[in-house]
Write a structure and sequence with these properties.
With 207 residues, the chain is an alpha/beta fold. The chain has two domains: 86 residues, Rossmann fold; 115 residues, Nucleoside phosphorylase domain (Rossmann fold). It has five helices and ten strands; from the N terminus they run E-H-E-E-E-H-E-E-E-H-E-H-E-H-E. It has a five-stranded mixed β-barrel. The radius of gyration is 17 Å and the shape is globular. 43% of the residues are buried.
Amino acid sequence: MAPEKRLQPHIMCGVGDVARYAFLPGDPQRVERIASHFDEARKVGDYRGYVTYTGEAGGVGISACSTGIGCPSAAIVVEELMRIGVETFIRVGTTGSLQPGLDSGDIVVATAAVRGEGTSRSYVPVEYPAAASLDVTLALLDAAEEFGVKVHPGIVLSTDAYYGGNEEALRTYGAANVLSIEMEASTIFPLATLRGKRAGAIMVVDG
């Protein structure tokens, strides 16, 4: 009898279920939309809101797994995907503009993130930078240019609060040329760095 595959407790996937590269949308429904562009995509996990698909794109193995909303949930997904073989993470989703020239439909590629949330502080002190991997960031910028979309590279702000944001703090970050606000990147980036993996983020402005 073959040994039972050990599944990760939250995403319910094991070794062999995922590829080395993974997209990380927040919304489970977006996973299915992403997977529709894969070759021969298959669902490999669906548990507690964490939906995972794996397939190929251009002959390269790739997965997509929903993280839910916020850094605590994203950290669970990244930790468990790392344990079963993912090495490169790309956060995809939406972001809110903090700049007057950043319009709905524009694309933001995050080069780094302000750690305005609490999860990453459980890993390293707040002085530790939340920087995206350079090679992943450059690849995302090249891809955006290839598709002819308007792209803005720069720093984003990650926060724990979707509602009830501190308006004065947002104005301060905007004045400091922080491009936009979102809820996951500032944990995904340092967690990948700490574990010797790679991470980047590409998001569409939705307001």
